[in-house]
DUF2269 domain-containing protein (Corynebacterium spheniscorum), 157 residues
Amino acid sequence: MLTPVLILHVLAALIFLGPVTFAVSAFPKAALAAHNGEGHAAGRAQILHRVSSTYGMLSLLVPLLGVAVMFTEMSYWREGRFHASIALSLVAWIILLLLILPKQRKAMGSLNLLGVEEHDGDEDFSGLDWQKNTKQMNMFGGIFSLLWVIVAVLMVI
């Protein structure tokens, strides 16, 4: 049972974490370029926001499958690196869900690029401080990426 669950865990990490990490890192620049009126930047920002939110939600499978791997091989419960990896993965996911995606949503709303399903008619996006929001998205995106690098190192050592 260990091998199929471990394969799914590794595949989920590769398939979901790579794209979401790239999208989170590239979005601030694309959104700022769209705000400054660059031609195709709005389309890039939309795609990167969609990848961040969709793949970000699907990336929750990585720590969940990590826990499943731990249940298939009880000796893993004695290794602190696996506990640390799961905890760091959950912290990264919380940063994405509670900090990065809301800031991306504000930027998209300010650009009038939110889809109908994402737009709440009562929200006002007009007063966005672009410099501050962009810096915060870059900072939280860097922390998000760093956490995944640390998790990858913990998985290999």
Notes: The mean pLDDT is 89.
